[in-house]
Structures are given as structure tokens and as C-alpha cells.
Design a protein that fits this description.
Length: about 220
């Protein structure tokens, strides 16, 4: 359901550059280096995965160690965010520019709950449907960013499937994590699309090999 990671990172990097430029951080004198904080799941490596992001920032005039610092806070869940958020808010109060970024919907929701002062840039599936923002054009408050996977996509996939297999009558949707904030809006779009095309849909959680065997009778 997601675009290629390189594409998502390219869009994400563009959003970061937009916000720091809009804040005037490229030209405005500051008491110290700007601070860019990444907050995301534990399977993300800052080495290889974010080389493209660093390149984009470098082209925009941001040089790590010269006018900004990277702070990687990588953890599988979102616990403990309340413990270190006051540190960032204190830096803002002292005049230091701080931006927190994430490409995880769950982490974005945690950031939204934790602070209304720190600038947050998200690059996630659907910020509107997941409740990270209340308006696409004017997200307001302290959050901005991009949607990396809009939800006309499921309906288009089903249209292509129906064209390729015109006799198909049932659609099976497998998902891994039931707690993923993007799951509900995505399944809703799948269900609308299948109904419009005269199909029946069943969604089943599948994380292990035996789950696939359990799912088979549903369709």
C-alpha cells in the first residue's frame, strides 16, 4: 500500500526543506545550530536509508555539524516521549530552532499529543485520515508535511485486478498489524471499491505462516 521508500524519502526531504526555509532558518541568525530530530520505529537506520535526505538538505545549504545537528531517536513504540519533549521545548524557549520529523503514523500521533510548541514534519500514509491533521491545505498548529500514500490507491488496484480477472467475485485483504493507524481508512477504501465493482471482501490478519492457511477459507 506504500510507495517505494526512495520516493517517500524524496517527498519527505522536500517537506523538511520547505519548513526550515519558510521559518527563515537558512538566513536568520540563531543563538546556536538548528536541531533536527528524527523520531521513528526501531527498524530504521540513519546510515543508508537517510543518505538521500542528507543530500537534499546539503543542497539546500544545511551542513550537518556546521549549521544543524541530527538527533536520531529510534524506538519500536512511542513510550517515553513525554520524558524528552521538555528538553526540546526548553531549547525553543532559548531561541534554538528545533524540528522533529517522522515517517511513522503512530509516532506522529504521539508527537502531536506530546507537544504543541515543537515544529513537526511528517511524511506518512494519510495525515488527515489518521487524525494527525484536521485539514490538508491548512494543517495548522505545529504540524506540517506530506501524505505518502493517498487512498484512492486501493480502489485503483482493485479496478486493475478486475480488468485482469473479470470473473473474480471475492477479494481477500491480508494485513499484519491491527494497531496500525492507517489500517482502518485503508480497509474502508478497499471495501467501498469492492462494493462498487460488485465484489465481496474479507480482511484477515496474517503475521505467521499458519495465518495464511487460516485465511484461505475466507475466499
Amino acid at each position: 500500500m506504500n510507495p517505494p521508500r526512495a520516493l517517500a524519502l524524496g517527498i519527505f526531504g522536500a517537506a523538511l526543506i520547505l519548513i526550515v526555509s519558510a521559518c527563515g532558518l537558512l538566513t536568520r541568525p540563531t543563538p546556536g545550530m538548528a536541531r533536527l530530530v528524527y523520531f521513528g520505529p526501531g527498524n530504521v537506520s540513519p546510515g543508508d536509508n537517510y543518505a538521500a535526505l542528507r543530500d537534499d538538505l546539503r543542497r539546500a545549504g544545511w551542513l550537518e555539524g556546521q549549521n544543524f545537528t541530527f538527533d536520531w531517536r529510534v524506538q519500536a513504540d512511542t513510550t517515553g516521549i513525554e520524558a524528552w519533549m521538555p528538553e526540546l521545548e526548553a531549547e525553543i524557549a532559548q531561541g534554538r530552532p528545533v524540528v522533529v520529523t517522522t515517517d511513522s503514523t503512530a509516532h506522529a500521533l504521539a508527537l502531536k499529543k506530546a507537544t504543541g510548541r515543537v515544529s513537526i514534519v511528517v511524511g506518512i500514509g494519510d495525515p488527515l485520515a489518521s487524525g494527525v491533521v484536521t485539514n490538508d491545505a491548512h494543517p495548522g498548529a505545529n504540524i506540517t508535511g506530506v501524505a505518502t500514500s493517498r487512498y484512492p490507491q486501493p480502489s485503483k488496484k482493485i479496478e486493475v485486478l478486475k480488468e485482469a480477472l473479470p470473473t473474480v467475485t471475492h477479494l481477500g485483504v491480508l494485513y499484519a498489524e491491527s494497531t496500525n493507524p492507517n489500517l482502518a481508512p485503508s480497509l474502508a477504501e478497499f471495501e467501498i471499491a469492492t462494493r462498487q465493482l460488485g465484489l465481496e471482501m474479507a480482511s484477515v490478519q496474517a503475521r505467521r505462516r499458519e495465518d495464511f492457511e487460516f485465511a484461505a477459507p475466507w475466499w
